[in-house]
Structure formats: C-alpha cells, structure tokens
Protein 1
Amino acid sequence: MRRWAAISLLLPLLAPPAPAAATETLHYRWSIDGFAGVIASIFMPTQGEGVLTVEERSPTLARSELEVTSPESKSGEFFRYGAEWERPGGRTLRAWSEQFWQGEKKQKQSEIGDIGVIDIVSGIDLLRRHRPVSQKRLEIWSDGKRYPVIVLPRGRAIRHIAGHDVKTHHLSVRGLSIPDRRFWKGALDLWLADDSAATPVEIMVSRSGAHVRLTLTDYPAKAESPETKEGGPP
C-alpha cells in the first residue's frame, strides 16, 4: 500500500498526457543488436517484422499486442506480448505472453488489476500518454512474475526513421534492486516521437543478453507538428 501511495505522489512530475491514437497498427522491422546478434545468427533468425496493435475496446478499456515474426523462420516461430488495461489511469487488468520457438510453445497469462503494474505493451501505452520527466518507479509483469523497475528519462535524441530525421524522447525501463524482491534482468527502451501521438518510432526489448531493436517502417515527415518541431515539453 505504501509503495502505491509513493507512486501516486510522482504523478504531478509527469508531462501533460500525449493523446495516442485510440486504434492503430504500427509496423516495424527488427534486428538483433551487437555481439549477441552475431552469435544468435548461428542458431536463430536475426531480423524480421514486428506489429504493434492498439485497440480501444470501450471508452475506458484498451487492448494491445506486440508480435514479432521472421521470414527467416522455417517453422513459424513468433513472440507475442499482450495486455488489457484501463484508460486513462493505466491500470493493467491482465497480461499475457506467448512464444513458439524451435518446436516448443510457451504461454503465460495473469490477472493483475493493481495500480502501478505494467507489462511491455501496457507500459508502452502508459509512457506514451504520460511521459515522465523525472525517474518513475513501477512494477513490470514478465513471463508470469512481477519485478520492481524504474523508468529513466534519457533526454532528446534524433532517430533516422523511414528516410526522415525524427526528434524523439528516449525512455529506459530497467530492473530495480530491492531486498527480498526479484530483479528484472530484461530491459525496455522507447524512442517516442515529438509529435501529438508520441509515436514509438523505435523500441528495444532486451532479454537474456539479446537486444531486439524494432524500427518503425513508415513515418511521414508531416507527422511532426510545427509546435513540437520547435520544442514542446523537455
């Protein structure tokens, strides 16, 4: 209870909500970064497609999935993260993950319902709509377990997306070391465009030492509004 009270005290430190689209489908190309990608190429696909869908089920309920596939896969392997949550408060109701890899299928699903708990996709939506301007503590649901994490604003960055230089805000989600709590060894990085929807033009999900970077395949230059080109919130 005290932990959630502390989280609520951080809400005034957030930037004004960014109105992400109610229903959208974003397409990405992904690749595995760094040395891990070189090693992984011996055993598994190292590039492919990713699709992030967000569907508004009602004025207060949203559902989202991030699916990662590869044309290099011979057996139809995939990874999928999904969640349903309440808007505008961001309370994740349930989350699931599913993968089919090297002939083995794994599934996890949990009912959540606590304020301050996210998964990969509900976390992306929450941070788009309420971008922190200072450190923010949350918990993340990952493969059926909960972990304390911290959101770290990394500042502005220019990303080259679909032939355009796009102004973005970089956010990192990292595990937080707390006594008697599990430590999240994964990582999530978001580069949110400085536009009215805070479009996630680049996403990096890290697991087991591998960094999967998803880059948006289509981002029109006109998506950046004149007011955000000149600045906007820091």
Protein 2
Amino acid sequence: MNKLILFDIDGTLTSAAIGHIEAHAVAYQKVFGLYGSIYMVDYNGVTDKQITKSVLSHLGVDEATIEAKIAEHMRVMEEYYVSLKPYLHPRLLPGVSEVLQKLNEDDNVLLGNVTGNLPGIAYAKLELAGISDYFKVGGFGDESYVRADLVKNAIEKARAMGFEGDDVYVIGDTPSDIIAGIAANVKTIGVATGSYDEQTLKNAGANVTLSDLSDFEALSRALLM
C-alpha cells in the first residue's frame, strides 16, 4: 500500500452528530457534577479531549482535577453514545458511498480516519452509517489535545499495517482538519459539506477544495497531487 487517505467523520462522511453532543453533557454531569455543554466553546474540528478540557476550564474546574478525571469522562461519553445506537441514524453525505467503494477497490490505497471523536463513538458512527468495514486505521480524539497529533498517530499505525509510501491525504470539512494536515506535513482536501465554504477552507491552506464528494473524478484528480 502506497497511498493513505484519512477521512474526518462528522460533516465529511456523515451528517450532524446527534447523540454525541448529549454524550458530552451527560458525562459532565455524571463525572464532574456540572451542567456543561460543547456550545460553551468553539468545538468545530476540535478533539473530544480538548473540548472537554475547554468546557471544564470555562466552568472553573482546575487543571489537576480535569487531568485526574478526564479518562473517566471519556469512558462515560463512549458508554452513553453506544447505549443510544438503536435510536441513531446518521446519514451519509453526497457521494460518500460511491467514493469509498471505488477507493476500496484499489489495492494500493489504505483508508483511515482522523477524527476528534473518541474511538468508541467514531466506530459506532461508522457502523451505524454502514461504512465501518472500509476503514482500517485511525487517529482519535482521546489520543491528544492537538489534532495534528492524531494525523501523525494514524500514519504510524498505518506503517505498522504495511503502508510504505509518503502519499498521505487528509480530507475534512473544517479549517482544523486542514491545519492539522499541514502541521503533519501531508496533503489536504477540504470539502464544503459542513459549516465552512470552499473559500474558508482554501484560506486555511487546503491544497484542493470540493463542494462535496459526489464528483469522483474531481476527487481522483485531487488524489494525484
């Protein structure tokens, strides 16, 4: 395998993260005894670990307490989200199904994820959307406060699975996806299927931007950078 393609999930592959926001709120209350919400901070493109720290800091929790309990907080989040699986129906965004099917047919391509989601939540979302089998590796939101670290982690995991090339792409819908890819020294493709338009993604430094993933030929050209 000589090409690694790392997809974000929310806003790139699937629609809005119903259940995920609630998982944060439940964990703040159960673990810290506080009413907290991701809406208290800028959460777009941010890892779950960093969102948690930012919300708790906003609520006046000291750093030592955050660090002591954050692993438990993330565990409660995952457990709560998984408990909602029978009631959640994430929708694939335009072109995603075809893109994954076609890319998966290429033996030289390894597909993975780089997402701010905790791994249990990420896997649940992919499973519910019917696309979990396509992805073999990933960087997830429990691994670091810094999103660029997730890209680097995913690449290291891919190396362990036999990825031998230097052709790595991050595909995402937020400036944070693009900035993380640049920091990890990989190529970046912005898709305007989330909260940001193509110009904003270009301004963040994306090598290529697309309105969505429905034009496979356009994506294929982007993957030849």
